[in-house]
User: What shape does this take?
Amino acid sequence: MPSSAASDYIGRFAPSPTGPLHAGSLVAALASWLDAQAHGGQWLVRIEDVDTPRCVPGATELILQQLAQCGLHSDGPVLRQSERSGHYQAALNALIAQGLAYPCGCSRKDIEATQSQQPARHTAAVYPGTCRPSPYGPGLQGKATRAWRLNIQTVREQKGLPAMTEWHDAQLGQQQQNVAQEVGDFVLLRADGLWAYQLAVVVDDALQGITHVVRGADLCDNTARQMLLQQALGLPTPQYRHTPLVLAADGEKLSKQNGAQALDLSHPLSALNAAAAHLGLSAQSGTVQQALANWTAQWSTH
Ligand SMILES: [Zn+2]
Assistant: This one.
């Protein structure tokens, strides 16, 4: 295990325990681990279980066991987001105190009714700012609070941010998104009382001192929202690298939802070789430890 003194790099792998690891999630795990090793850094595992209805009992233990079989061990305690509500509440309180978050009384139907056309597949309707407080909008107008949202317009004004959020992705190159236009004021605390993924990730990345986020390309379009939240909360922005997705036979993203097979780890090196091949690394034989060491060397010159 590398010495934490070797570098300031802190990376992480942050699976949701909605099932065991599949081929796609192993790619993300291996890429984030290799990037940390190649930088002489630390690698932390964080269980993203804020969306409790989607979590499967026992999946966390299974994922940790699968990682261990692949020789991937967290360099610190495994953090579980379900135990961290106090941190998320503190962040929301800070945003409210700065006038950067506001209550929303809209149901999903209310928001869909404001759309001139159906949102594209896999995308949510853009929130039109119905409940944004004056002088920008009418506010709740007597509706009960259902959710809390980030006031992007006020964040931009207070922090002097341009409309376009831009960043350099270590894999994908220059990226940009106009969050206000493409997403709208997004949710921080959901109507069902659960913390939104974006808020939990931003708070934990900062509290864990994460410097480098290496994750699957399916999460790329969360980056601009997370950067806006970092800026709203006065938190640093990590470097981002989004790795190519493993696609299912139908060309869709491989996921637990479309029946991705759980990894067969009777031969961990075979599973690791498949993940490494997807990352453009050469096939290895021998032990898992030797393979990981060779891939780390390859990753450094990648
Ligand atoms: Zn609303």
Notes: The chain has two domains: 4-82+204-300, 85-189.
